[in-house]
Structures are given as structure tokens and as C-alpha cells.
């Protein structure tokens, strides 16, 4: 029997992980930058493909996007496995087929439907903080169920309040989950001179997050992160249920092929309460109108961004007219304001807002992540990065600008907040 040597020599930390993950079905691995997490992950999949003993082993590597999977994982997969006789590589599907029937495929989490209906024996999710929290529950967990497959989450912290942080915190208390943290100051995987150089070029928060795996360091370029952290300390993020004694305003960020986001607020005296949020994609306005009706909220206003008044070439009608036909009335149109002015208005309003933690978790996760792009050459932060968080941030911008620019005078008699309680977000007794 010919012995084939894979061109991979694991470092002590990597070797420990290979051993540990044979004992645990689920794991969360927090690693600093340049720790070799992708090399380790790809080789762990290759090892299992060759040694698991499972018939037709199926391994999957997920990055936030398919492009990222191809850029960071595909070359490694080919490099370390091409020495195996009989290997086949499908460049289109990012798939490696082993001579024993095993298969490893690279996916992007931005298109979860591409992996529906498949089964997996081992899944690796890289940079899970940048993925939709539903990815594991709705896609991966069912895909590993019948084969009793395993799943490993790896990444570098991206602040608190995202799904990677939540998963890590939960996993620490679960007996069948393995967790560990690799800090640059402890691993010795990055040369001291390189770390000193990084410290000079990065802010303190950037370095703490990227190399010391700090969950509390602010996301680089974060627009709303510090405000939300302060809101946490002042109990502005808690349990704030819908009170039928007050009207509800709906704020939209409209998407066609992109995500549509709806924010639901109630105004209690001088306090604004964000009681709920909803998001979906590839749905028509009548779908969202139907969702709102089912909430049974007492809707006061439907507030849309300015582009709702644009007319469709195919029909000659505006989406505003269509919204009216769906029963959305009265409609207020948010005036057009520059992006930076809108962000500024959003920051001011957010600091004074109260948010229901449970129902608005997707909103909170997105707003903590929403950040500006760093231009290394000019050493400045530029425009916000357009990603999954942008739609929630845009909906909030609609809310902030509308409240600033439009007349939202209260038309209904104010009653007790949270019927049956004496709680008032203003700290007053009613």
C-alpha cells in the first residue's frame, strides 16, 4: 500500500484542535489573525475525508460569501489534497472529489439555498460573525442530522452582540461543545516584531480585537457600536413589549432583489420604543402588508424612503400608489437627506431610544456590525460597507430622518406603558 504524505505539518495548537475535535460534535474556535485557521480547517476536512470511515463522506466549508470561500479556501484545498492519486477538482462548483467517494465542497453563506437538501458529515463555518444567525439552525443543523455530523465555527471576534459571540457564550456552558481562544500574546504564532509593527499601524481597539481576540473592542469603523454599548449599561435594551394603548409607526427600507426591512416603533411621551423588526427578501409589497395586518398592531403611519414615489416603467404606477392599494394608509414619505446627515440623525435618535432585546435582535446585531470601510493607503475610514447590516441601518436612517423632518404629533391619548405594569421608560410614575 502506497503511503501519501500531505504537505501539511500542524503546529502544536493546530494538532491539539485536530485531537479535540474528534471528541466533540460541536466546537467554537476563536483565533487571532494570522493563526492559520483556514489551513487548519481545510486540512481537518481532508483528514476526515480520508480517515472517518463514513461511506461517501461529505465535508463543507462555509465563508460569508462564495467569493471569500474561493479566495481563502480553494487554493489550500487543492494544494494539500492534489498529492492524493485519483483526486478530481470541479472549479465551477468548488468541489474536491476523493478516490474513496468522499467529497469536500466550498460554499458561500450569502446563498444558503445552494446547500439545502444536502447532507454533511463535517461542516466548518469560517468568520461566523458575518453570517446570518439562521444559517446554522435552518441550513446546517438539518443537513447534519441524519448522519450525526459535526460542525465547527471559527473566526476572529467582531464585537459583542453578533451570532458568533452569542454562540461562543452559549457553547461555554454546554457539555457536548468545545470552546477555546487563541490570543497572539499566548500562541507565539506571530513574530514579536510583526506584532509590534501591527500595534503601530492599528488603533488600540483594532489590535485588541484582531490579535488579542477581544470581544469588547469596538468593531473597526463602527458607526453605532459605542452608542449601543452605552445603551446596554443604561438598560435601554431590555424587555419592551407592544402596548395596545399606543399607536405604532412602521419604517421601511425597501428592497426588490435585496432585503426589505420594517421597524416598528411606539412613542411613549418623549421616549421612542423599538418594539419589533422584520426582514425578508424577494417579496412584494402585498406580502409585507399582510405581515403587518397579522401583527394586529394599531398602525398610525407607514413611513417609506423617498424612492417609493418613483414610477415603474412597466406599469406607470409608483410603489406608493401600490402600497395604498394594499391598505397601507396613511403613508409618510421620508425626505431625501445625505447619507452622512442621515447617519448623524440616526446616532442622535438611537442614543435616546429603547429597544426590545428579543424581538429586535437582528436589528441590534446589524447595527453593531454596521461599519465604515478602512482605506489603508489614506489611513481613513470612508463610506459604510454595504453588506447584510446595511438594510437595517437604512431603515433606521429612514426612521431618524422622518422623525426629525416630519410632523409626528401624537393623535391618541397616552396611556400606561406595558399594560399591567408601572414601568415608564422616562423614569416617571404614572
Strand order of the largest sheet: 3-4-5-2-6-7-1-8
- The total domain count is 2
Helix and strand content put the structural class at alpha/beta
Radius of gyration: 25 Å
**Low-confidence residue ranges:** 410-430
DSSP strand tally: 17
Average pLDDT score? 86
Largest sheet: 8 strands, mixed
Shape: globular
CATH topology of the largest domain: Rossmann fold
Q: Count of helical segments?
A: 14
Report the CATH C-level class of the largest domain: Alpha Beta
Q: Classify the beta-strand content into a percent band.
A: 15-25%
Helix amount: 25-40%
Determine the N-to-C terminus distance. 83 Å
Q: So, the CATH homologous superfamily of the largest domain?
A: P-loop containing nucleotide triphosphate hydrolases
CATH architecture of the largest domain: 3-Layer(aba) Sandwich
SSE topology sketch:
Elements: H1 12-20, E1 26-31, H2 37-51, E2 58-63, H3 66-81, E3 88-90, E4 95-97, E5 103-108, E6 122-126, H4 134-145, E7 150-155, H5 163-171, E8 177-182, H6 184-187, H7 192-201, H8 204-212, H9 225-233, E9 237-238, E10 248-253, E11 259-268, E12 271-281, H10 285-295, E13 299-304, H11 319-325, E14 331-333, H12 339-350, E15 353-356, H13 361-369, E16 372-375, E17 380-384, H14 390-405
Parallel strand pairs: 1-7, 1-8, 2-5, 2-6, 6-7, 9-15, 10-13, 12-15, 13-14
Antiparallel strand pairs: 3-4, 4-5, 10-11, 11-12, 16-17
Helix pairs in contact: 2-3, 12-14
Brief sketch in words of this structure:
With 430 residues, the chain is α/β, with parallel strands linked by helices. The chain is 34% helix and 21% strand. It folds into 2 domains: 12-212, P-loop containing nucleotide triphosphate hydrolases (Rossmann fold, 3-Layer(aba) Sandwich), CATH 3.40.50; 228-405, Nucleotidyltransferase, domain 5, CATH 3.30.420.
Amino acid at each position: 500500500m502506497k503511503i501519501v504524505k500531505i504537505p501539511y505539518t500542524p503546529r502544536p495548537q493546530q494538532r491539539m484542535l485536530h485531537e479535540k475535535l474528534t471528541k466533540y460534535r460541536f466546537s467554537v474556535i476563536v483565533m487571532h489573525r494570522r493563526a492559520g485557521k483556514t489551513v487548519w480547517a481545510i486540512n481537518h476536512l481532508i483528514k476526515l475525508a480520508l480517515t472517518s470511515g463514513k461511506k461517501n463522506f461529505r465535508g463543507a466549508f462555509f465563508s460569508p460569501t462564495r467569493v471569500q470561500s474561493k479566495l481563502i479556501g480553494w487554493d489550500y484545498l487543492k494544494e494539500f489534497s492534489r498529492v492524493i492519486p485519483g483526486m478530481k477538482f470541479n472549479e465551477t462548483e468548488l468541489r474536491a472529489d476523493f478516490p474513496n467517494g468522499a467529497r469536500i465542497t466550498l460554499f458561500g453563506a450569502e446563498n444558503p439555498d445552494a446547500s439545502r437538501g444536502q447532507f454533511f458529515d463535517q461542516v466548518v463555518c469560517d468568520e461566523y460573525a458575518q453570517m446570518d444567525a439562521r444559517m446554522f439552525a435552518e441550513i446546517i443543523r438539518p443537513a447534519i442530522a441524519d448522519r450525526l455530523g459535526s460542525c465547527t465555527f471559527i473566526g476572529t471576534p467582531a464585537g459583542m452582540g453578533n451570532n458568533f459571540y452569542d454562540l461562543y457564550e452559549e457553547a461555554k456552558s454546554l457539555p457536548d461543545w468545545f470552546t477555546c481562544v487563541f490570543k497572539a500574546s499566548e500562541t507565539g504564532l506571530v513574530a514579536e516584531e510583526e506584532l509590534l509593527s501591527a500595534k503601530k499601524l492599528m488603533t488600540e481597539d483594532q489590535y485588541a480585537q484582531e490579535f488579542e481576540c477581544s470581544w469588547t473592542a469596538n468593531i473597526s469603523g463602527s458607526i453605532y457600536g459605542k452608542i449601543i454599548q452605552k445603551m446596554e449599561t443604561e438598560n435601554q435594551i431590555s424587555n419592551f413589549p407592544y402596548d395596545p394603548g399606543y399607536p405604532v409607526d412602521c419604517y421601511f427600507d425597501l428592497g426588490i432583489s435585496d432585503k426589505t426591512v420594517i421597524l416598528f416603533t411606539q412613542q411613549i411621551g418623549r421616549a421612542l420604543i423599538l418594539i419589533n423588526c422584520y426582514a425578508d427578501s424577494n417579496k412584494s409589497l402585498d406580502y409585507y402588508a399582510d405581515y403587518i395586518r397579522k401583527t394586529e398592531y394599531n398602525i398610525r403611519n407607514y413611513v417609506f424612503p423617498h424612492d417609493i414615489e418613483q414610477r415603474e416603467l412597466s406599469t406607470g404606477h409608483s410603489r406608493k400608489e401600490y402600497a395604498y392599494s394594499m391598505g397601507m394608509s396613511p403613508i409618510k414619505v421620508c425626505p431625501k437627506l445625505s447619507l452622512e446627515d442621515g447617519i448623524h440623525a440616526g446616532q442622535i435618535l438611537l442614543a435616546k431610544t429603547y429597544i426590545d432585546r428579543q424581538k429586535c435582535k437582528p436589528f441590534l446585531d446589524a447595527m453593531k456590525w454596521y461599519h465604515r470601510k478602512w482605506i489603508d493607503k489614506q489611513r481613513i475610514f470612508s463610506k459604510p460597507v454595504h453588506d447584510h447590516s446595511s438594510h437595517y441601518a437604512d431603515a433606521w436612517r429612514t426612521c431618524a430622518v422622518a422623525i426629525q423632518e416630519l410632523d409626528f404629533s401624537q393623535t391618541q391619548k397616552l396611556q400606561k406603558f406595558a399594560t399591567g405594569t408601572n414601568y415608564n421608560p422616562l423614569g416617571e410614575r404614572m
